[in-house]
Design goal:
Layout lengths: L7 H16 L4 H8 L3 H14 L18 H11 L15 H12 L5 H10 L16 H22 L2 E11 L25 E9 L4 E5 L6 H13 L6 E5 L3 H4 L1 H9 L4 E5 L10 H12 L8 H16 L2 H6 L10
Parallel strand pairs: 1-4, 4-5
Antiparallel strand pairs: 1-2, 2-3
Helix pairs in contact: 1-3, 2-3, 5-6
Length: about 325
């Protein structure tokens, strides 16, 4: 993309943010894609910074029409958008172009159209995204403490044992599919015919940090017994290695029977628990997201039997793609920043 489409102020912001991202371990290609510029531009910015320092990254003001928002105001707007819209008087937390337009007028007395807002945010490196869900019951202080104190202990345990580490979780797969997007004439919403029957089933899976996936379609209601059976399945896959598993605090995971099982295997097996209401820390959640939003998106299964066959086929396919599975191991626990 031609960098000349951006204002001097925005490009200056990009240059400084590119330096920050590089320090956090991002690749030039990733930085370029994020800002919508050519990788060569990113390389040039980094070289200039290395040889001449931060001063050389600043834009030289030229003549011509001034942008509606100064760099200072753009940065201020960006800080607004990092917070929920509810903090600025809106009833729901999501920012829309209409709301941003209102905020710009209220704070800076500058008038934008909604299309203009969309273009402005795009040029400033923002994208329209679907947010992750986060339970309001979550104790953020406990999560931070766990990440800072418990997670390093688990990592040391893995290293001391030379163990294989798995994240485990269960998920329901429904006959009602997740619908994707498709191209269609404006004003003519396309119709996708899917079954009106209700039904589904549960699958338990475990993904390792090394990119290995184990799974099982559950034939009965999930209980502590079925969870223990699955843990045994994981352990048997690694007869010559010790295994460490991380799970959430679902009642079937914390039952006395599970704790007794873990204690009986303590020489070769360890079970740790994530903080309550913290699915963002569980990498196995990414397995389910990929399965439902990619592999099974807009599926055409008409019965639970057909859906099981399709889900198993998809999971077997994923199981063979080690690079894909490794890419699903991400999140706050693996944030290099």
């Amino acid at each position: 993309m031609d960098g000349r489409k951006f204002s001097h102020e925005v490009l200056e912001t990009y240059r400084f943010r590119a330096i920050e991202l590089k320090k956090k371990g991002k690749k030039n290609s990733e930085i370029a894609e994020f800002f919508g510029v050519h990788p060569a531009s990113v390389s040039r910015w980094l070289t200039t910074h290395k040889r001449q320092g931060e001063e050389a990254l600043k834009s030289v003001k030229g003549t011509g029409r001034c942008p509606k928002l100064t760099l200072e105001k753009l940065n201020q707007l960006l800080e607004y958008l990092k917070k929920p819209a509810t903090e600025y008087g809106f009833q729901t937390p999501l920012w829309t172009c209409k709301r941003v337009k209102h905020a710009i007028w209220k704070e800076f007395h500058e008038e934008f159209t909604e299309v203009g807002v969309w273009k402005l945010l795009g040029r400033f490196g923002l994208t329209n995204q679907k947010p992750e869900r986060r339970a309001i019951e979550q104790d953020s202080k406990e999560v931070k403490r766990w990440v800072k104190e418990d997670w390093p202990k688990i990592q040391k345990h893995v290293k001391r044992w030379q163990a294989i580490l798995y994240f485990v979780d269960e998920a329901g797969v429904s006959l009602v599919p997740v619908l994707g997007k498709t191209w269609a004439p404006k004003g003519e919403t396309p119709i996708v015919e899917v079954t009106g029957r209700k039904g589904g089933f549960c699958i338990t899976s475990a993904i390792s940090t090394a990119g290995r996936l184990l799974f099982r379609v559950e034939k009965e209601e999930m209980t502590a017994k079925t969870f223990i059976d699955f843990l045994n399945k994981v352990i048997k896959q690694h007869k010559k290695r010790r295994v460490i598993v991380i799970s959430d605090k679902a009642p079937i995971h914390t039952a006395n029977a599970v704790k007794e099982f873990s204690e009986s295997k303590k020489k070769t097996f360890a079970l740790y628990y994530l903080p309550s209401y913290s699915p963002e820390l569980n990498c196995d959640e990414h397995v389910w997201a990929y399965l439902k939003e990619n592999k099974l998106k807009t599926h055409m299964a008409k019965s639970v039997k057909e859906l099981k066959k399709l889900a198993l086929s998809s999971l077997w396919s994923m199981q063979k793609q080690k690079s894909l599975l490794k890419s699903l191991v991400y999140g706050p626990l693996f944030d290099t920043t």
